[in-house]
Specification:
Layout: E1 2-3, H1 14-26, H2 36-55, E2 63-66, H3 69-83, E3 90-94, H4 99-112, E4 115-119, H5 129-135, E5 140-146, H6 158-165, E6 171-175, H7 187-190, E7 194-198, E8 209-213, H8 227-230, H9 238-253, H10 255-272, E9 279-280, E10 290-294, H11 300-309, E11 312-313, H12 329-335, H13 341-344, E12 345-349, H14 356-370
Parallel strand pairs: 1-11, 3-4, 3-5, 5-6, 6-7
Antiparallel strand pairs: 2-8, 7-8, 9-10, 10-12
Helix pairs in contact: 1-9, 2-9, 3-4, 5-6, 10-14
């Protein structure tokens, strides 16, 4: 079996598993309890928050633990916009965002009268900082963009957008789910006000994530307790938090080596594909972890099925529409509704845990299927 759908979720690292196992065996108190078991859990929670803050170059009070990227996105977008709707009701985002960004914004538009400007990729399949600058209005209160696109691996100009927003009152939310653990990210240096992350995208456990906030001036998304500085009710999932921080620390400790290995794995795959007819769906700036590749005349749903029968797991894009091969709204934004690429393209997403032999096997299997 070969797993190459790491943009959907990653296998847990040994560092995460080891750290979680120890906590589950030894520390089972509620971090909010005042007895000894609770204090022990609370100490670990504080230490994890401090370590995560250090990894992001910030302070612990700027870190809030959530259930993952979806909750972090919803909290930042809905919580901030509802708190500040008296200042304006205009939001800027892009057409290539994850549904966990697009749908909360749609919710605000439909139920609270917000307006949204959705930026489309230019002719070079890029979202530019100038597009954001030109879309800004006096009543713009939030700009929300992803750091790395989950379907194509395309990088967005985060630093440039952050610089533009330093002279505007709008807050900047970045969905960094596909970037955290793969790039060095210091949100304060980048001018980011909200940053969302999910542990299972960087070899941590599912069901846990975090939200970096420059200021806690936003409405809580969950109510019913005073946890997380009264901004996120609910008992903290301590084993998962510890596993997430351990996974992220392990990734950041090996950031350059992991990047170079994945880059090499992608090159091995493309070298092995030589002689076949294919195209790549990508922008100018790319992360090597995601490769969106299309094969003229080949239906992607049948291609996925054939690969699955050979024990190889890849995808067409977002796993949050799992169960059905749907047309990619990202590729639709890049190439238009009538482009054959929408039905010919698949996503190969690579992890440092993959091997050269796996990439060679994938290429050979693909060539056998498509007759290349």
């Amino acid at each position: 079996m070969i797993y190459l759908d790491n943009a959907a979720t990653t296998p847990m690292s040994s560092a995460a598993i080891s750290a979680m196992t120890q906590v589950m065996q030894e520390t089972y108190g509620n971090p909010s309890s005042i007895h000894g078991h609770g204090r022990q859990a609370g100490k670990l929670l504080r230490e994890a928050r401090q370590e995560l803050a250090c990894l992001l170059g910030t302070k612990p009070q700027h870190i809030f633990f959530t259930s993952g990227g979806t909750e972090s996105n919803n909290t930042a977008i809905i919580g901030y916009c509802l708190r500040h709707q008296n200042r304006g009701k205009h939001i800027i985002t892009t057409a290539i965002e994850h549904h966990a960004v697009l749908e909360p914004i749609e919710y605000l538009v439909e139920n609270f009268g917000f307006e949204v400007t959705i930026l489309k990729p230019d002719d070079n399949q890029e979202i530019t900082a100038d597009q954001v600058k030109n879309a800004l209005r006096e009543d713009t209160i939030l700009v929300s963009t992803m750091y790395v696109n989950n379907e194509t691996g395309t990088l967005l100009p985060i630093a440039e957008i952050g610089q533009i927003l330093k002279v505007h009152s709008a807050a900047y939310h970045v969905d960094a789910v596909q970037a955290v653990g793969k790039l060095k990210i210091l949100p304060e240096e980048l001018g980011i006000d909200f940053l969302s992350a999910s542990a299972h995208k960087f070899h941590g456990p599912k069901g846990i994530g975090f939200l970096y906030v420059a200021s806690s001036d936003f409405d809580p998304y969950l109510h019913g307790g005073d946890q997380e500085q009264k901004k996120r009710a609910g008992t903290e999932n301590l084993p998962a938090i510890i596993g997430m921080v351990a996974a992220l620390k392990d990734d950041i400790d090996h950031l350059e080596a992991n990047f170079n290995k994945v880059q090499k794995l992608q090159k091995v795959f493309l070298t092995e594909m030589a002689g076949s007819t294919y195209y790549l769906n990508q922008g100018k700036e790319q992360l090597p972890y995601v490769l969106n590749i299309g094969f003229p005349g080949q239906r992607n749903d049948l291609l996925l099925l054939r690969l699955d029968l050979e024990g190889i797991s890849i995808s067409t894009g977002s796993a949050c529409t799992a169960g059905v091969v749907q047309v990619s709204h990202v590729l639709q934004a890049f190439y238009g509704e009538e482009s054959p690429r929408l039905h010919e393209s698949v996503r190969v997403s690579i992890s440092p845990q993959n091997t050269e032999q796996e990439m060679i096997t994938l290429a050979k299997t693909l060539k056998n299927i498509i007759g290349g």
